[in-house]
Amino acid sequence: MISFISTDFSLSSNFKPEDMENQCILCDDNLSGAVEYFQASKKKGFKPIISYRGDEIYIAKNKADYTEMLDAFSSQRIPKVTTIVGAPFGKLANLVTESYYPYVPAEDAWEVAKDYVRSLEGKIIIGVTPYDSDADRALRELLRDLAEHLSLDTCVVDDVHYTSNLAVSNGVEYEPHKDHQILVCLRTKKTVDHHDEMEDCFKRFFKSNEYYPQDWSNMPEYEGTKKLVESCEEYDILAEPQLPFFEDAVNTLTNLAREGWKKKGLSKEKDWVVYRDRIKEEIRVIGKSGFSAYFLVLEDVCRWIDEQGWMRGHGRGSAGGCLISYLIGITKVDPIEYDLLFERFFSEDRAEARQLPDIDIDVPKFKRQQIFAYLQDKYGHDSVAQMVTFAALQGRSALTAALKFNDSCSFTEIKEITELLPMKDKVSDQMETSGEHSLIRWTLEFLPERLADYARFEDGKIVGDYANEFEQAIRLEKVKVDTSKHASAIIVYNGKIRDVCPMVKDKSSDELITHFSMEHGEAAGLVKLDLLGLACLDKLMLINELLKEKENSEKKK
Predict the structure, then answer these.
(1) Contacts 24+ apart (CB under 8 A), 252-259
(2) Each residue of 395-412: pLDDT tens digit?
(3) Which of 13, 19, 89, 94 could disulfide-pair with 161, CB 3.0 to 4.6 Å?
């Protein structure tokens, strides 16, 4: 079995790469899931094959193809790689059909199809759909004739969005396609009962539950699918963090620390030996990790912020335990004075594992864009970018979706039910202690009286008037449904970001932002700085300015 899968990174699927049981080809409408898919494939012993759906399906058969695909996706151009045409809802399918349900072929479909395929460059494969609707059968017949006429290879292209036609979760049997339908409803804003009002490309998911991995080996084109997989090379898309280059970074960091030692007069401290020994140990561990440049980048940007006369935070969380950061001006808290541990911030184990340290810097909200522009000017516009973040369904939003799109009850009752769930940040510690990651399931188990009128546990199963909706909502928790720009993360890379990471335009601007999540970007070699804009710092700066103006005014009098 070989399937073309859409993962939840497509924002309309609940298929996760970790659920793969057979060889799969990644085929989202973006490249955001490439790292997660790559890691899952390697773990399961499958060859990773990365493609994405644009006008047609583009396949990366080797590392050069993958790099070309990333650049093309980021530039919104057609990549110069092997292309599969004719698969359902690609450009060729749209050109030769006037409607999908019912299927009506364009009057000159044959000529249009020939002209379109002949206009394409590079290696072309005809992708044949395996599904059995009238539309799919008619399109399949046309594509088979076209492949024979133009002497082109063929392959079977399915469209997997969920794991199976029947599954079991927590001892309860369910139909995965119904969960997928809720995700489609989220995109189209229609309920399950009103799928006929959806666009044709979404309507198909309500007319069939076949969009799961199946054995298509009975189709003659399946040999072409196997041939395609065999022709793809194995290559690596992961890398260690690639920091901006600094000449002799360890010595540079050491010298900056010495300067900080002198400025702060630590040699006069009663316990100056403690400081000396701590500095030596921190320099040793940081040098061993190879991340001295990370501290140099942050030292540079913090110094520049201070030179502008802007306020910034003193140091957040475990970063306050780093004496080197204090000496070079990144943080403003002496960890020796407050008995803060370096190991809580950055341990030797993390250094050996090449895990980046994590320092959060609070900056004025309305100066953050200028700070970002400074970093771009310093390290290169192709090497610095802001980052995407993926929003997933949480307890309340997952339950709202299950109740709303199944037309289970009125809006008023949905609001009443979902507000009975506690806010996750209020109970996160208790959830962690219990080992339960689902807010809905945790509430049913530990606060059963809240939801007893709607759903409850009996003999380990959920029962009640809305039992099915609660079960479905639990399965939908953590499924990705939207994107936005990360509030604090800025990517700084030693090279051209789009060589290793897809980029998209931010929704609210024309700015290109990275389209890997935080952990996947780091796995691909990107380095993340956390510069969080706080409006309170802008207000404090304004108060200072007003006080100075008042003071100057009084002096003139």
Answers:
(1) 252/292, 252/296, 253/283, 253/286, 253/292, 253/295, 253/296, 253/324, 253/328, 254/283, 256/296, 256/299, 256/327, 256/328, 257/283, 257/324, 257/327, 257/328, 259/328
(2) 999 999 999 999 999 999
(3) 13
